[in-house]
Amino acid sequence: MAIESKDIELTANERSGQLDQDDIAAQEAVEDARKAAHGQSGGALERYINMVSAVNFSFILQCSWEAAAVTFQFSLSNGGPASILYGSIFAGLGTTLVATSLAEMASMDPTVGAQYRWSATFAPKYNRFFGLMQGWITVFAWICSCTSNPALISNVLVGLITFNNPEYVPARWHVTLIMWAITIFPFLGNFWFRKLLNPLEAVGAICHVVFFIVSIVTLVVLAQRSSVDFVFNTLTHDASGWTSPAVAWGLGLLSVTYPLTGFDGVLHMSDEVKKARIRIPRSMITSVVLNAIMQFAYMLTVLFTLGDIDVVSADPLPIIQVYYQATGSKAATNLFVIMIAIIIFIAFFNVFASVSRLLWAFSRDNGLPFSHVFAKVHPTLRMPINSLILIGTCLMLLALINIGSSTAFNAFISLPALGLYISYFFPIFFIFIRRMTRSQPIPYGPFKLGVFGPFINLGAMLYIIFIVIWMPLPSFLPVTSENMNYAGPLIGAVIVGALADWCITGRKRFQIPIARNRPE
User: Fold this and answer.
1) How far is CA 169 from CA 163, 179, 241, 312, 399, in A?
2) Is 70 exposed, middle or buried (0-12, 13-18, 19+ CB in 10 A)?
């Protein structure tokens, strides 16, 4: 009864906008006590992530300039400098609107389930249905996002091997084996993630910033300059089969929009973040703004120091030729490209941790078949071990795509971007509807958008819709089985599978994860 009384008191404070830091700490204690008292789904996680670690977690997880560096080949054939330069500005502004919209909801209800819990909470009706559908989409998107890290690293390693040994011809199964080897490290590392977090985040943040500065200074000092006209006025629309400049520019956005996704990763660590209602919104917005600025600055530098565009475009990993033409040294080129791979590798630990918590939370709400298995928390390690094992298994299986498709890397990049943007859309849409209809009061947390809320939500939704239009389209024409973009069909298959799950057992099994402070 004491817990319930305190619960009511804190909820009243939330609705009146008087929630201070003491209230937040008390509420987190209440939430943790309730989970322990009711034995909620096999145990609860422990709060140990402070403000610095929370900001660094998202900051490193996105690693935007590094991801853009190893994927901008998509923009060279579609859009060219126009997609890279103006697309970076567009993506930075649009993603900030999306992150700000979700940060407000994170302040209301900082939960591991995040998007699917908010959709279940704010949907005007059919809450259980929208919650389950959102859960499947979000979990799938994050598994694909987790796969993209080893895909990026393996692409870098294969590119460097080819660069240093031109006679080497990489087989598709080589990439699969490299992805498997890379996945082992964060899988094992997450068993002791709590002990690794602080040093890992500190090293990652330092590398993320220092390598960024060193790379830009090196290119500016040593590389041959591109013309201002090339950087600001070149729109490539005749290299991929797409002849429309507008379509080419839209397709080229993949290289600059994909790296800015994933800012919600810290959300899925909510049960381990102290004062989550304040720190998670700050972490999300800070991460997006800083990464967007760094990505724009880096890609602007690359465009001005690109060198021979034909040589760069012909390389499977163009950034190698950018550094090689600038330095004239294979050793220096290897060093700079390996630095990029190191940061993406560190980010892999964060992505792996985040998606395992998301899967655990979805299982805790009976969103998956055999949920009782994946909802367990190891009593000693305080980690969702079974969820970690499932994620590792999924990554191993998805890596097999390389063996059957020469364009698997495209799928590993476009799939998480498409899935994550879709997962961002629905909770923003539902909170926007509630704002406009005023059908129910909104349980604001410490961070609220006020009168700007509807405009920020609307801008975020328009940005998402625009980006999602281009993600499923193939990068080259004519479309064949080899160059087909399978992102759209795979997302469609997940939605169909989620509908089937709803019809068979999901509607009875899934528990609507309504936030405690939701007005009834």
Assistant:
1) 11, 17, 27, 19, 19
2) buried
CB atoms within 10 A of CB 310: 8
CATH architecture group of domain 51-206+229-294+343-509 = Up-down Bundle (1.20)
**In angstroms, how far is CA 473 from the centroid of its own chain?**
20
Give 46's pLDDT tier (boundaries 50, 70, 90): low
Q: How far apart are CA 56 and CA 169, in angstroms?
A: 38
Give yes or no for residue 36 having a pLDDT over 90. Answer: no
Torsion angle, alpha carbons of 77, 79, 85, 90, to 10: -130
| Cα–Cα distance measured from residue 306 to residue 326, given in angstroms and rounded to the nearest whole number | 8
Report residue 213 as tokens.
Answer: 């500065």
236: left (phi over 0), alpha (psi -120 to 50) or beta: beta
Note the residue count of the chain: 520
Rounded Cα gap, residues 100 and 106, in angstroms: 10
Residue 375: per-residue pLDDT = 87
Q: Which two tokens mark 143?
A: 């598994």
Q: Mapped to the 3 state alphabet, what secondary structure does 335-382 carry? A: HHHHHHHHHHHHHHHHHHHHHHHHHHHHHHCCCCCCHHHHCCCCCCCC
The helix/strand count (H/E) of the chain reads as 24, 0
Sequence spans of domains, the chain: 1-38, 51-206+229-294+343-509
Amino acid identity for residue 424 in this structure: Y
Helix axis angle for 408-437 and 115-122, nearest 10°, is 30
Sign of the Cα pseudo-torsion (307, 163, 259, 274, in order)? negative
Measured at the CA of 122, the angle between CA 368 and CA 118, to 5 degrees, comes to 45
Interval 208-264: pLDDT, tens: 999 999 999 999 999 999 999 999 999 998 877 888 899 999 999 989 999 999 899
- What sign does the CA torsion over 463, 464, 467, 470 have? negative
Tell the residue number behind the tokens 């305190």, with chain if given: 6
Asked if omega into 281 is within 30° of 0 (cis), the reply is: no
Average pLDDT of span 277-281? 91
Strand partners, 236: 79
Virtual CA dihedral for 38, 43, 47, 49, nearest 10 degrees? -150
- CB-based contacts of 251: which residues, under 8 Å, 6+ apart? 74, 78, 79, 83, 240, 242, 470, 473, 475
CB 299 within 8 A of CB 84: yes
Q: Mention every residue, 6+ apart, whose C-beta is less than 8 A from residue 319.
A: 69, 70, 72, 302, 337, 340
